[in-house]
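Quick log. Single chain, no ligands specified.
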Amino acid sequence: MKRLPSLTQLRHLVAVAEHGHFGRAAEACFVTQSSLSASIKELETGLGKILIERTRRSVMVTPLGESVVARAQDLLRGAEDIVDLVGAADTPLSGPLRLGTIPTIGPFVLPRVLGDIRKAHPALKLYLREDTSARLINSLGKGDLDLIMIAFPYDVGGLETLVFADDPFWVAFSQGKDYAAKERLTGADLATEEMILLEEGHCLRDHALESFGGKRRPAPADFGATSLMTLVQMVENGLGITILPKMAIDAGLVRGMAVQVRPYEGSRGARKIGFAWRSSSPRAEEFRLLSDFFRDELATPLTSKKKP
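-> predicted structure:
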C-alpha cells in the first residue's frame, strides 16, 4: 500500500511555495517554524524526493516540487469543498464565505445589501476582498476565494457564472456644457470631448471604451485614475468627461460636486453584474440564493427607496 501524504503536509508545502520563506509560511499555517520544517521533511521522506531546495539565503521549489504543489492545491480545494458540502446540507448560507469584488462595484452595492443578508442569515460569516477582476479570478482558482462578484462581459474561462443585474452607464461632465440640456447623451454629443478613465487593469476602462464602439481612446494615453472618486474630481476640474456606472451615482458619488450626469446611449450602454465560482464548488445553490439579495436591491435605485 502506498504511503500517502497528509493534508497537513500538503498545506505546509503549498504555504512554503507561496511565501518563499519557512518562517512566513509557518506564521500563515499557525505552527512553529520547526514543526513546519519537520512536516516538509516527513513529506519528502515519504515520497522519496526533494521538493524544496534549502540554502542559508533562499528557499526554492524544485521543478518536481512545483508539480506537486499544483496538485496539492487541487487536493486542498477538494477537501475544503467536502467541508462546505456537509455544512451547506445543514444550513444554507452559514459559516465562512469568502467573497471577492471589484472596486467599481463593492463600495456602491455592498453597504446596501449586507444588512439584509445578516438579518436573513445571521450564521453566515462573509469575508470580503476587493481587487481587480483578473486577480480575483486567480484567487478564486487557487481556492483563496469562494465566490467573486464582477462586471461582465469578462472572460472567466471555465468558471460558472450567474448574471443578476444590469448597471447602465452614465456620462459625467463639468458644468456649462452645451449638451447639458439633453436628457440622454450619445457618442455624437461627446465626439470632441477628452475621455478620462481608470488605469489599465480595471474592467470598467474596457467597458467604457466598448460603449463607444471601440472608436474612442482615453486621453492623455499615458494616464489613468485609480478610483472613481479621482475620476469625478478630474471631471469637476474640467479635464474631460468620464463614464460612470449608475450604481455609483445612486450611491451619491457625485453628490455635492460641480459635476452633471446624464444617461449614455452607446453601442453597449450598460455592464452586467454577476457572480462567478469554480464549477467544482458544492455551494452553487447557496450562491444563487445569495444573488437574490443583490438582484432585488439593484432592481430598485437607491434614490427611490423610502427612508426609514
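The CA atoms of residues 73 and 80 lie 11 Å apart.
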